[in-house]
Amino acid sequence: MDQATLDLLKIVQADGKNIALQVAERFSISRQAASARLNKLVKAGLLARSGRGAGVRYELTETASAQQMYDREGLSEDRVWKSTLMPIVSDLPANVRDIWQYGMTEMINNAIDHSGGQHVWVGLRRTALTVEGYVKDDGEGIFLRIQKALDLFDPRESILELAKGKFTTDPDKHSGEGIFFTSKVFDEFQIQSGHLFFRHDEGEHDVLMEDPADVSGTVVRMAIANDSHRTSKEVFDQFAAPKEFTFAKTIVPVKLAQHEGEKLVSRSQAKRLTMRFERFQTVVLDFSEVAEIGQAFADEVFRVFQLAHPQTLLAPLNMTPAVSAMVERARAHSKDRGSTAA
């Protein structure tokens, strides 16, 4: 597929309205010529058109798909991949195929080993630009399961633990890396369970929402561009220690510790944030969308925790001036104590 066609399809993907005008402006051609290009792609089965006149809309069509329901008991994720899913992506670049195999088999295995449900549903839907996939189960729900396992006060805290990585409810069988790395290799990654919806998009801030719909079990959705250059290895290497093959680094969106209507001011919030940080060599604390933090919160993270776990490097980023000032104050007090002790 030539670059001009890809560019045109991306315009449709971004916004299905006023496409003829957008295409005409993008390629410096007439509206009639733009409409002719669009008609050609409709006839080729890559686009679908609906509506009339000013209400005409275009959308990418489904070029291939597969979906299947399985009994969870005795299910093998490798069998599901080979029999149902692999044929949909078999002609894509090797790096994209590898990402799909990794992500789908990891999420299917999670549903098999952790959900406790009766059934697992899987599916892939392909267009000219992307593939979207999902894994669904009818178990108790991932957020509720983690809440019970860690005795958390609120199921929203479960999402923070997933974002950190290295957590599993079955440590004898799992490393706790599957969801963390799967969320990083795809362009889009979503988990929905109960009334909670978590989304991680490449290049965008993580989003946690409370959904009025009550979703039973767990639904994981993933998507990636067919021509993505990302590889699983480069993502794994990003979080490994130099010259090692260990999961040594994590990136934690601090805003996930800040529930609606709250400010991050207390030591208990800080302790919730730093729980299990000591398992990593480096913890990158992303303060995006956190306007300010309290003195006690900053002190607990950047002095108390750091003094207790000097082997863990805390690396804050995307701080507002107010957050930065609190962090520097806490670190200054930590240095003062260290000098006194010496």
Provide keyphrases for this structure.
12 helices; 5-stranded antiparallel beta sheet; 3-stranded parallel beta sheet; Arc Repressor Mutant, subunit A; globular; Heat Shock Protein 90; single chain
Written overview of the protein:
With 342 residues, this protein is of the alpha+beta class. It has three domains: 58 residues, Winged helix-like DNA-binding domain superfamily/Winged helix DNA-binding domain (Arc Repressor Mutant, subunit A, Orthogonal Bundle); 171 residues, Histidine kinase-like ATPase, C-terminal domain (Heat Shock Protein 90); 103 residues, no CATH class. The chain contains twelve helices and ten strands. Strands 3-4-5-7-6 form a five-stranded antiparallel sheet. A three-stranded parallel sheet has the order 8-9-10. The protein has a two-stranded antiparallel sheet with strand order 1-2.
Main-sheet strand order equals 3-4-5-7-6
Main sheet: strands, sense, barrel: 5 strands, antiparallel
The third-level CATH topology of the largest domain is Heat Shock Protein 90
Please name the CATH architecture of the largest domain: 2-Layer Sandwich
Helix count?
12
| Domain unit count | 3
From the helix content, strand content and strand pairing, which structural class follows? alpha+beta
Number of DSSP strand runs: 10
Compact overview of the structure:
The protein is 42% helix and 23% strand. It contains twelve helices and ten strands.
Topology:
Blueprint: H1 3-14, H2 19-27, H3 31-43, E1 47-50, E2 57-60, E3 64-71, H4 77-89, H5 94-114, E4 119-126, E5 130-137, H6 142-150, H7 156-164, H8 178-185, E6 188-201, E7 207-225, H9 232-238, E8 249-253, H10 267-274, E9 282-286, H11 295-308, E10 313-317, H12 321-341
Parallel strand pairs: 8-9, 9-10
Antiparallel strand pairs: 1-2, 3-4, 4-5, 5-7, 6-7
